[in-house]
Amino acid sequence: MNRFLQARHWQLFVLMFGLPFIFYIFMMVSIFSAATSGNAVNVFGVFKFFPILMLLVIGVQFGWFWSVAVGLQPKVPEIVKMKIKRFKVFFFIPLVYMALMIGLMCFLLSSVDFLNPQGSGLFAAGVNPAAILVPFAVIIPLHLFSIFCIFYCLYFVAKTLKTAEVQKEVEFSDFAAEFFLIWFYPIGIWFIQPRINKLIQEPSLDAPDEKNSGN
Question: What is the C-alpha separation between 180 and 90, in angstroms, rounded?
């Protein structure tokens, strides 16, 4: 947890945005090269690395969410009641959903061998492609609810940061800027993370009491 809180803004930027951007460039170059050579199989071979990249990005981003929302709680004054249990529930729902989606993506990508003239893979085995569309009737509402949970996590992280800074109850209008900076993290992380670094370097709220008790 402290590694995310103590990390520099450029380190988080590289993990959250830099590496994915480089992969996207590599993927587009590979797709263009495969398209010009007429080899469509190589295109899908590149996509098989996409779930690994998703795991990296999701792990870093949600790990940072958790570190800020939970790790900064000692900096929040006791008079302010943060709904940390609700945050934890809404935090894990999109993680479970995205894990299922990545598993489904891996399953589908493993079945694209039907492009191979030798005729292997899921569709070549005679499975009706329409049967794959059935789960989407369940996926769509789960997807929408997961989006809601993610926005609540953004809301909670922004509120926690602002509350820890001003040491009082805050309204959304007080931390709206932080909310949008966290939402657009490639830009916002350069402004948000230095403030987090500064917060964790400050003594805990109970530090003066501990010193007085020792005298």
Answer: 19
Structure-token pair, residue 67: 């570190």
Spatial CB neighbours of 142, under 8 Å, sequence gap ≥ 6: 97
Phi, psi (deg, nearest 5) at residue 203: -65, 150
Contacts of 147 (CB under 8 A, 6+ apart): 94
d(CA 180, CA 93): 22
DSSP-derived secondary structure for 76-134: S-TTS---HHHHHHHHHHHHHHHHHHHHHHHHHHTTGGGGSTT--STGGGT--GGGGGT
Angle, to 10 degrees, between the axis of helix 50-71 and the axis of helix 185-201? 40
- What's the pLDDT tens digit per position in 77-114? 999 989 999 999 999 999 999 888 877 777 766 665 54
pTM for this predicted structure: 0.78
